[in-house]
Structures
1.
Amino acid sequence: DGGITQSPKYLFRKEGQNVTLSCEQNLNHDAMYWYRQDPGQGLRLIYYSQIVNDFQKGDIAEGYSVSREKKESFPLTVTSAQKNPTAFYLCASSVSGQDYAGYTFGSGTRLTVV
Amino acid sequence: DQQVKQNSPSLSVQEGRISILNCDYTNSMFDYFLWYKKYPAEGPTFLISISSIKDKNEDGRFTVFLNKSAKHLSLHIVPSQPGDSAVYFCAAASSGSARQLTFGSGTQLTVLP
């Protein structure tokens, strides 16, 4: 079955540490996205990538970094520069082009800074 | 500045009745709209979409209506079932952009048995 896998489901981090969230898809989608969800707020775009080896900042990229070395993988690093990293992180992918079929989302990673 | 707004954070309806979830947008460049459903600790799943060339799209119990002049869309669920209890996100996209979706803040629907 095709889909998106995010790991781990829960992650705890000490203040001052970087942490990397994994996102892998086997849907052969060109585009991948990272969103952050906070209570009472919509999904806010962190970074997106339309093609391998290329990515763009979203609305709230500060304190985050990404890479897209393979089509299937789009890991997100939450750096110590991110002031409020505790949140629910969602990865998504989509077919690039004019076929607006929507996004396929992973099941998310809940990051807690302790 | 929120370009997609869902002004009702929560909605409760009785099982079997109609649920109506509303969404407003401000960006006139948006020409494609989607609804996603999300259960706790899971990612959102695609529910239904509508292009700006239409004003209605139906899929089983779910119907989305688009009023372009009012920049308003709504999702109707008839009849509502307890399994429909979830957070519903409205999202919008512009064909002129790089296919990024802009999401609303979500509405928690609770269907009471």
Note: Residues 31 and 52 of chain B are 5 Å apart (CA to CA).
2.
Amino acid sequence: QVTLKESGPVLVKPTETLTLTCTVSGFSLSNTRMGVSWIRQPPGKALEWLAHIFSNDEKSYSTSLKSRLTISKDTSKSQVVLTMTNMDPVDTATYYCARISDYNFDYWGQGTLVTVSS
Amino acid sequence: QSALTQPASVSGSPGQSITISCTGTSSDVGSYDLVSWYQQHPGKAPKLMIYEVSKRPSGVSNRFSGSKSGNTASLTISGLQAEDEADYYCCSYAGISTHVVFGGGTKLTVL
């Protein structure tokens, strides 16, 4: 059974750095042609892809947020970590991690709501 | 503003069919058969309903189908049921620079 679960702070202050962890089970982060993506959704708004990392450690980032994002993985811990610097209230959103296979997001975590406020 | 354009809302009565369009460009939808559709109920995570334009994951009802023509992809739901009421998002691979783009989402109301 494939599962993903996001964890991290529920509240961050403006200018702080957000660190989110996605812990996966039911598949390995070393599986060929699979990876993990981060996707966010501001309240009442659409989904926005942020980044992904594949089994070969290939990383890709949203063009508009690239300067603020870093994605990494620890295969032994089955974890993928996303950091986002210089947080702003407009970054308030539910952050999801999802398994990506051939550019399809086939399994999703439950999401974690992150609020940016002083 | 989302990269892929979807109607904000569609509606239909139980038993009817509806189609949701997803318009992109020759750099995304028009160039790759890597269009997927996601269903999202309020407060829940999205669920993959269609991948690679027209394929259904195991467990997804055959009432859901997908297609593509040029730069526009479509999701059709036949035999509408109350449980289909949700938000639907399209998504496309967009090449090695942009990677992934989502649509703005469509709210489906079952009357």
Note: The beta strands of chain B are 9-12, 18-23, 35-40, 47-50, 64-69, 72-77, 86-93, 100-102, 106-110.
